[in-house]
Amino acid sequence: MAVLRGSNGLATIAGVVLDTNGEIVRNARVFYNSGGTKSTQTNSSGAFVLESIPEGIVRINAELNVGGVNYVGENHVETFANERTKNLVIVIGREGQQATMEGTVTDRFGAPLEKARVHANAGYLGSSLALTDRNGRYSMSGLFPGSTYDIQASGRTYVSDNTARSFSAGQRVTQNFVLSDAGSPTLQAPNNLSAVVWTSPRINTSMPVRPNGVKEMIRKMLDTKRGPRHAGVGKKPKNTAGNNPIEVDLFWDTYRNDNLLGYGIYRGTSQTGNTTGIEYFADPLANFFADSDRNLNENTNYYYEITALNSNYPDFNNSESDFSNRYGVRPIGDMTLRNVTTGPLTFNWSSCRGAEKYTVFLFNSYPDMGVSAFWPFDAGSTAAATTTGTSLVYTGPGLTSGRKYYYVVLALANADDSRSISAIGSFNAP
User: Fold this and answer.
1) What is the DSSP letter of 48?
2) In whole angstroms, what is the distance from residue 94 CA to residue 208 CA?
3) Are 55 and 39 a contacting pair, CB within 8 Å?
4) Alpha helices of 348-402 — where are they, by DSSP H?
5) CA 29 to CA 20: how far, in whole Å?
6) Do residues 407 and 214 make contact, with C-beta atoms less than 8 angstroms apart?
7) CA 149 to chain CA centroid, nearest Å
8) Residue ranges for the chain with pLDDT beneath 50
9) pTM exceeding the 0.85 threshold for the entire prediction
10) 162-186 pLDDT, tens per residue?
11) How far apart are the C-alpha atoms of 88 and 78, rounded to whole Å?
12) Enclosing H/E stretch for 212
């Protein structure tokens, strides 16, 4: 597998800020500080973009003050020159409540290992990353009580060392790792690759807005077999006829192997033809990847495969597993709202190219920071809010006259793997 990287210039980082419940956080300050601060704010979907960041593994911080209480968090991410690094998740919590884990990573003779990676993963909170210095020391902050973390230290040409642990508020713990010499075992291919593709609305802002809170609600309703994961934030919108962004979310079974270094991500446009490596994903604890390439287009079939990479990758012939199963998706078009009409209350929208059905989601307040739809309220009730046409008469609970309500319309096709979500609309109840 070969993925070309830029050789000059600076990097861009795109990501999302969450709280400890996995909900998005808006208006948080996100910053990089090394020889001068570069900062931005998360938008209403919790998304952020930081530009002109040096190449390498860098630390990104986030902070928010609510009612005089500071909430902070941090994570590390690997950046490449002239590329956008996606999928960075920063979790913030009350200042002083997070735990810190620190220690050393050595080889079996006790020699310190520089640039070894320590990953800590707590499911929907994503992976935190720390890198060892020349003395083999690392420090990882921003770990939260109430979650059990899978923790793995790894490095090229070494067998990983693993543990699992939970933390207390404010705790500072020492966790050392010893890496053994790697052979070159042949890894099994990852299992049960699946995917969904999202077309999201383009919003007039300098950052790529994705209604992540709404997406997570829909994911919980439709993707019960895939479990709780958070989608990444992609590149500036450029993908559909309406210049709306497309993102393919890949899922696979959790894979645990002491020789696993990460994953190779492959994509093609044929069900049986060759696929091309698009990403070396260096997170052995991951089971999710978001492909938000600018070149993804609607009405085109895309097929994905992934491989497992062992600790010697790419230096040995058997350092990469066979391919997983191949999974195909097809992006559909833009989802555009039209005005709500009354007498009776009716939601209206324009036809979405490729859509087979539509579902309306209605909210009591702006759908952000953990706000859930009250119509429909669970997966078993979507039928009343679903139609194959371009309008739907409201049949849910009674509304308060004069109150402002918010809604989105979701277009679905291809066994619900193809999804297009509208912008957030609003109306005052008659």
Assistant:
1) E
2) 27
3) no
4) none
5) 17
6) no
7) 18
8) 1-8, 203-211, 225, 227-238, 369
9) no
10) 999 999 998 999 999 999 987 778 8
11) 9
12) helix 212-222
